[in-house]
Amino acid sequence: MFGSTILDIAIGMAFVYLLLSLVCSAANEIIEAIVKARAKHLETGIQNLLGKGLSEEIYGHRLVSGLFPNKKRKPSYIPSKTFTQALLNTVFPDGLSVEEGTANPLAKLRETVAGLSSNSAAAPIQGALLAMIDDAQGDINKFRANVDNWYDAAMDRVSGWYKRRVQFIIMILAVFVVMAFNADSISVLKALANNKALRESVVAAADAYAKANANPSPSPSPTPPPTSGQTNGTPAATPTIPPAATPSPSPSPSGTPCWEEACKDDPNSAACKVKKSECIPCWEEACKDDPNSPKCKLKRSQCELESLGLPLGWTTGDDKWPGLRFWEKSFWNDWYAQLWRHWLGWLLTALAISLGAPYWIDLQNKFNVIRSTVKPKEKSQEEKSKD
Q: pTM of the full predicted structure?
């Protein structure tokens, strides 16, 4: 039984860290949408590859410009095939000249590249093109593949820049999220260890969450590195809040909304409003336009955290919110008192959630597998002792 308690506490802690990590990820997505960092990283990577002049021509090519109807916003993703076609059309406006039946079918193509003037926009990549033509050994398809691979290798470097940047932002956001939620790992750990009913409730919510996201639909995540020219990262599984934890408003057995009985006499009565607030999940307003928006993900994770009943958030007791009026003397005194009280728990939480949601998803799944094997053994042992 002792082992099961420890395991349940571990599952509960991992679930809290997962939800807080999702809050950070959603906040980062909102920031990315504002600053358009993915598009800027892609543009920088292409400029480093081609030079400023040729990169501007590539962005102006119809194959690429068609990817961003809004001309004020550049794309955050250009497929390698599209890039290769746009580049070859720009460097060779008359088409790729191939002389079939000759010793070197790409000889004329090589001659064209070798004859590029220093004033040509393609001059910065002249050496690279010659190397790729020579490596193709007369095979035009291999030459195209070489250009694809060249672009993909450049985007791998861009992915490294982006991953490091996102990791830094997540770490900064983790500090603010921990303080905003007053997420003290030590307080949460004590609550889970000392309250069996609370512990079982959190484990049940984590189990429902895992089942609801057994096969999550892919959606962009800022944490994994982008590949193959995709600067916003390889699509990764971003879980959704399980129906068991945050139920959607559902009709009663008669097919009517659950609040209709309380609202039939007066839709504006206090009883009606209270019933509606109980029936409608707290995230519905944020998710009504786009359930996959960062704003919706942020709100859903917040609602899930609040529903767990753990010592998270600010109360009117010792954990009273110090406020944001930094120009007042009480601000500094109150925040100093909270830092002295929670610094270690906050630090542990910030370090944990900076690992990212994918880490905690994987760990939670491992804990659930272990728990599913431990529970039957405990039950069989208890039955054996009764005999």
A: 0.67
The values of phi and psi at residue 218, to 5°, are: -70, 140
218, β-bridge pairs: 237
Structural element, H or E, at residue 236: strand 236-237
Helix (H, G, I), strand (E, B) or coil at 72: coil
pLDDT tens, position by position, 245-281: 333 344 444 445 665 666 777 777 766 666 655 566 6
Ordered DSSP codes for 6-56: HHHHHHHHHHHHHHHHHHHHHHHHHHHHHHTHHHHHHHHHHHHHH-HHHHH
CB contact burial 169-194 (16+ within 10 A = b; e otherwise) = bbeebbbebbbebbbbbebbbebbee
DSSP state, residue 124:
G
Cβ within 8 Å of residue 117, ≥6 positions away:
123
Residues 208, 213, 216, CA angle at the centre, nearest 5°?
A: 165
